[in-house]
Fold this sequence. Notes:
2 helices; 25% strand; alpha+beta; globular; single chain
Amino acid sequence: MLIIVTIPLGFFYVLNNGNPYTKYIADKNVPVYLEEKGYTENEIEESHYVEPKYLINNDYYHGHYMVIFKDEPDTTYYYGITKKGKQVKQFCEKDRLSPDGVTDIVKTETKHSEKKCVHSLENRD
């Protein structure tokens, strides 16, 4: 009886909150990566794990880690974790809030863009 109740509850939890293992990996690795890149907590306005509602690159875990920097508050950067090696990579796609309140996806270079970013919308099935 316990298994019959637990499986659907676990399924709905993962649908609404994302995979807890992926969240753990992102919460553990991305802040360390940002620190190694020279960013301090004082430079970051907001950062946390997010679960996208669309398919992403198959080489990466589904969850993202979003970061908004204080000196660029209208742009949201996303970081992913590779399935092989659990390396942190910045995704090239960023969300930018326009003055009229519309969020657009931009792939152009911005203030905190990394030269070797990865396209999160490639290699999807």
